[in-house]
Design a protein that fits this description.
Mean pLDDT: 90
Number of helices: 5
Strand order of the largest sheet: 3-2-1-4-5
Order of helices and strands: EHEEHEHEHH
CATH class: Alpha Beta
CATH architecture: 3-Layer(aba) Sandwich
Radius of gyration: 15 Å
Low-confidence stretches: none
Number of strands: 5
Structural class: alpha/beta
């Protein structure tokens, strides 16, 4: 069965992901460095120990082919892709084999530019349109994952 795994600490679309999971009756696993006040029959949570990448390691370990992973973390998305999962970012953009290399390169470039002071801003603020795009992207990812598990 397809599971939706959520990289939970900074995820702005947990409620939207749960709505999609409810529509399809799919289990949701939220992995984070702290407990989230979410009480839903489809949701289980794992609190990772403190430390860089502790939650990511749990998600990458639990992700299986046909699962959907919600994360903004590009290295985590790459690890999940390698296992056959379908990662998607909180703005509804899927991570795919065809684009993950370029996304990793851009991530590294932006990190360097921030460290040198060339770039000082972060990503644009999260909007209603982003939530809408996420819902659409997650619905497509769930349907594709379910088809692939048949």
């Amino acid at each position: 069965m397809t599971t939706i795994l959520i990289d939970g600490d900074a995820c702005p679309v947990k409620d939207e992901a749960i709505r999609v999971a409810e529509r399809h009756q799919l289990p949701v696993l939220i992995v984070a460095n702290r407990w989230h006040r979410i009480d839903h029959y489809l949701v289980s949570q794992v609190v990772a120990q403190q430390g860089a990448d502790a939650a990511d390691d749990i998600i990458a370990d639990k992700a299986q082919a046909g699962d959907v992973v919600v994360t903004a973390d590009i290295p985590l998305a790459q690890r999940c892709l390698a296992k056959g999962a379908r990662p998607i970012d909180p703005r509804g953009r899927p991570f795919e084999e065809a684009n993950i290399g370029m996304q990793m390169a851009m991530r590294d470039l932006m990190k360097t530019l921030r460290e040198t002071g060339e770039v000082t801003g972060g990503p644009a603020g999260f909007t209603k349109q982003d939530r809408s795009r996420f819902l659409d992207g997650l619905e497509k990812a769930v349907q594709a994952a379910r088809r692939s598990k048949v």
